[in-house]
Amino acid sequence: MGQFTHDVGRRGFLRAAAAGTVAVGAATVAGALPAAAQTLAPSAGPHGASLSIPKDAIGIQLYSVRDKVQDLGFRVVFEELSRMGYKEVEFAGYTQNTSILGRQITLQEIRTLLDDNGLRAIGSHIGIGSLRNNLQQELDNAEILGMPNVGTANAPSDTPTVAAYQAASEDFNRWGEAATARGLKLYQHNHSGEFAFAKDQPEVRLYDVFLENTDPAHVYLEMDVYWAFVGQFRYPGFDPAAYVRAHPYRYTMFHMKDGTSDPDAGDGYDMTEFGAGDMRYQRFIHAIGPFGNHHGIWEQDNAPGTQPDPPGSLGAAQRSYTALANLLS
Questions:
Q1: Is the preceding peptide bond at 308 cis, omega within 30 degrees of 0?
Q2: What's the farthest any 2 CA atoms get from each other in the chain?
Q3: CA angle in degrees (0–180, nearest 5) for 15-18-23
Q4: What pTM, to 2 d.p., does this model score?
Q5: 259 DSSP β-pair partners
Q6: 298-318, pLDDT tens digit by residue?
Q7: C-alpha pair distances (Å), 131 with each of 3, 94, 128, 156
Q8: Which of 12, 24, 229, 303 is the most buried (most CB within 10 A)?
Q9: What does the pLDDT look like over 146-199, one tens digit per residue?
């Protein structure tokens, strides 16, 4: 998500076919990179193979259209998203311009607008500080909105060491247990920095520390595919699809955002509308395997800059929905 610091890189393609899948053992503290994270997944599945991303529940991270939410309000935005075909929304805040109603909208009013437009709240990005200090209220908010997942796009820790990520894992385990007790799932959304190697143990990948030390019964993951590919470029030695293939039931959602490779850019990709880039999503959706139920959520951090405006970010949302629906058909 764009309100957090992004570090990007380039290429991140799934490069070659692999014979079979090796289970991820994530031997993080021992220093070994997990086998499945190094194993490149198959380049494509058989024609007509079952996909684990449902095509009839395509979602949107509302951060992509944050300018329209702020200026036009949830009612107008939800009406437009429903018309386009979106079925699920992931929140990035619960506020709109107070001039629309003469006051701030309430969560119950947002829930009513969702129901009126045939939309389902699938999750919400909140700050890690709110998980730490305001967890029960955030879980209350999730229940009001009828959403099954609540999470954060913050890195588990700002300190890139094994010890810090182990300590952060304990926090997530505790928060996850509280969410489970309420019938909800807690998740963490990655950027590229989580795939870096630990400063204190350079042979250990931070993402593997978090994966190994969080309880799969209580802590789930939302893979941002774009940032995972970026992480693959910046910190080589893993394949994003292999993580999902080895842990299919931990990945509740994907952020499906696209990028155009740009070898001259410092980070290697330019983020763009879905379908307008050259990231190899066709390969990815088959390589992750048929197991699990991974909700596909479109996100484009820079969509509010889309011209002409209008429709701006809503135009990007429409075109990206069409491309994503075609991919999953």
A1: yes
A2: 61
A3: 115
A4: 0.87
A5: 271
A6: 999 999 999 999 999 999 999
A7: 17, 16, 5, 11
A8: 229
A9: 999 999 999 999 999 999 999 999 999 999 999 999 999 999 999 999 999 999
DSSP 117-139: TT-EEEEEB--HHHHHHSHHHHH
Residue 11 has pLDDT above 80, yes or no: no
pLDDT at 49: 53
Estimate the share of the chain in helix, then strand, then coil, as percent rounded to the nearest 5.
40, 15, 45
DSSP 80: H
Tokens of 1: 């998500």
CA distances from 23 to 64, 67, 241, 245, 290 (A): 35, 43, 13, 9, 16
Whole-Å CA distances, 162 to 127, 131, 210:
22, 21, 9
Determine the 3-state secondary structure of 297 from DSSP. strand
Length of the chain: 329
Distance of CA 220 to the CA centre of its chain: 11
* 267, pLDDT greater than 90: no
